[in-house]
Amino acid sequence: MVALGSIPQQDVFQRVKSSRDEATAVRASILGGFAYLAVAAIPIFLACAALAIDPAGVERLAADDPQLILPTLILERTPPVVQALFFGALISAILSTAGGALLAPAVALAENVVRPWVKPKGDRALLATMRLTVAGFAAAVLAMALTSKLSIYQLVNESGKVVLVTSFVPLAAGIFWPRATARGALAAIGCGLAAWLAAEALDPQALIPPALIGFGASLAGMLGGSASAK
Fold first, then answer.
1. Which one of 12, 149, 159, 188 has the fewest beta carbons within 10 angstroms of its own beta carbon?
2. What's the farthest any 2 CA atoms get from each other in the chain?
3. Would the pTM count as exceeding 0.85?
């Protein structure tokens, strides 16, 4: 279910918006999905190889911090050239992902939320508004990263939940449901986020996952908000 939260993400938006036509956008999205699967298979294969090479070491690292399994395998079992290539590629991927994940939502927020509210006069003022939004967004993300005790995997999983309960229903309804309205989208965002946060606070290990509760509330908000606008 959380995988649906990966659909309304900045990499998909960038790929679609930069395409010259609809057919190119569709092909790019499908090819990008297969590329993600191929790239994701590499660390999975390496982790399985580590389990076959050193089961005791993998068990020890899994009990302490599973994120150390792959780096430890590279450091202990590969030559320096492979280590340089691996960690260089890892740092490059982290910086690239962090840059895209920072700029895309910050610019979208500045263009669609801050700009109509501030109403900058001229391109220079608009650019300054976007820069300030990016700086504020970066400061908020940095504060969250420094104060959070979750692992990278858990943080990514939580980000998928946020997008699922706030963005998936408005996006899907806007594309496939002719009666969807802006009021319904706002209601879906507010209801989904509020229900998810409440469910997480009350019982995060409940029989019905909080993300599913938030998704249902988002769907109800879209239906109710769009119906009330008629």
1. 149
2. 67
3. no
